[in-house]
UniProtKB/TrEMBL annotation, chain A:
Its EC number is 4.1.3.4. Residues 48-310 form the Pyruvate carboxyltransferase domain. It is an enzyme of class 4 (lyase). It catalyses: (3S)-3-hydroxy-3-methylglutaryl-CoA = acetoacetate + acetyl-CoA. This is hydroxymethylglutaryl-CoA lyase. The lineage of its organism: Eukaryota, Metazoa, Chordata, Craniata, Vertebrata. Pathway: Metabolic intermediate metabolism; (S)-3-hydroxy-3-methylglutaryl-CoA degradation; acetoacetate from (S)-3-hydroxy-3-methylglutaryl-CoA: step 1/1.
TrEMBL record, chain B:
This is hydroxymethylglutaryl-CoA lyase. Pfam families: HMGL-like (PF00682). It catalyses: (3S)-3-hydroxy-3-methylglutaryl-CoA = acetoacetate + acetyl-CoA. Residues 13-280 form the Pyruvate carboxyltransferase domain. The lineage of its organism: Eukaryota, Metazoa, Chordata, Craniata, Vertebrata. Keywords: Lyase, Metal-binding. It comes from the Eukaryota. Belongs to the HMG-CoA lyase family. Gene3D superfamilies: Aldolase class I. GO terms for molecular function: lyase activity.
Amino acid sequence: MGNVPSAVKHCLSYQQLLREHLWIGDSVAGALDPAQESSQLSGLPEYVKIVEVGPRDGLQNEKVIVPTDKKIEFINQLSQTGLSVIEVTSFVSSRWIPQMADHTEVMKGIRQYPGIRYPVLTPNLQGFHRAVAAGATEISVFGAASESFSKKNINCSIEESMERFEEVVKSARHMNIPARGYVSCALGCPCEGSVTPQKVTEVSKRLYGMGCYEISLGDTIGVGTPGSMKKLLESVMKEIPPRALAVHCHDTYGQALANILTALQTVVLCSPLLVETIAGPWCMLYVSPPREILLSLLHILGEESAIHAR
Amino acid sequence: MESSQLSGLPEYVKIVEVGPRDGLQNEKVIVPTDKKIEFINQLSQTGLSVIEVTSFVSSRWIPQMADHTEVMKGIRQYPGIRYPVLTPNLQGFHRAVAAGATEISVFGAASESFSKKNINCSIEESMERFEEVVKSARHMNIPARGYVSCALGCPCEGSVTPQKVTEVSKRLYGMGCYEISLGDTIGVGTPGSMKKLLESVMKEIPPRALAVHCHDTYGQALANILTALQMGINVVDSAVSGLGGCPYAKGASGNVATEDLIYMLNGLGLNTGVNLYKVMEAGDFICKAVNKTTNSKVAQASFSA
């Protein structure tokens, strides 16, 4: 977030702004003022990792298909912000997701900075092998906690999808490639309505058990609110350690930051919590809180998120 | 979808609807008087118990509120609903009472620069003015509410200390305001600074006499409100459709949308007494009158479904 509103810039001295509103500065470390640190809420993790899903989850849900060179440039710019995980693309058939048709070119074309991870979605073995051939070193699989959504979205039942993912994750582990698991509809389903925390826990446990190092719980249609978020996490955390969990909150009903704050408060202190965000423009149907807004929340909470915001 | 309540939250949250005043006064389009009246009458049927109607300020300063007297006289005042109006000085107060107002508000700031820029006088001068107004109001058994703007930051001065906000709040409370609404005027606050502010103010003013008025300029409003609720505050100001942009940041949003607030509170299992769908209908009505799309995410999601 570098766009200081012009009126604010006019009123505030720029130095004061940098001092008082850390997210606009060039560097977080060193700018942290003891007075700001004291405003940290109690019961929060010390470190929050942001997983940037804009290039994949974001762009795949935009009507406009972004040209390959612009995607590559976008990802290269993100690589220079301090983000440590950037989801690049999805190795799915272009018949289903034309926005991701250039997955191989994008994967090959981006500059892979050392220390940054570039996971890609691989819904099946074929996609997995293509991803590896294109240079991917981390993959994700995408399950759902709702049967109807699973059938509608990936054309098979939850059980069938799990069997497919087992093959993928097994191959990944065989090649020492980390695999991440997503569970969509974690707080509600566009088809079925309410989804029980128990169902989400069951699916999460399955993905974790097959070898996914981390499970991202997705509020796919953004219907969750702090109460349902807390209830969900309490259920899932009985089976999966907090350090292996992430939240992926959509902002469809404006609840995302409140839900993320609740997740931060619910997770055990000192566990890194992964929060997924999408930089750039809002998607029409599936929106996540812009990274810039999340950053301001985190920084003023006193979180060290090791992001050098521009 | 039953969702479990977070612990430590109030059972009931009172929503103070400021759309007709704070919202419309910050919109470029001046809404015709009859549409304002219709808007407020619609809001009166949603279950809201407090609706801020207008502002008795000079039309030279706030042309959007020039028809304050006609609006106040024109609305239907439903029993059990309160219709406060802003009265920055004695003249405005007397006009308000003559027009049928039975509750008033005064609007101070926790920043000297903002006070001078916004109401053309120092904080101290404004307090003296408000003392006169609140004294007259109390004399007539008219409740007075106090606002403190720039509670979490000022467009001119930058950071504002919780101590300063506490000092101004205490002054307003001491002169007889029954409730103090702490306003994050430029929406720069985040949960940490909200908590710090409330910890300071609550040393001097009981939580039941406090409200939060969070702007969503940086998208932080609901997170800040949630934090305030967790600290025992149970009065929240909001504006239907998120009416009223930010006069200090062109194109930015202003008030938090009542619809989005209700959505969160409903999800938490908290009682508000307000019907979300009726609020959305009123929001749809006023957005057409103002000729803009809603700032409420809930309304956007619902109307596009």
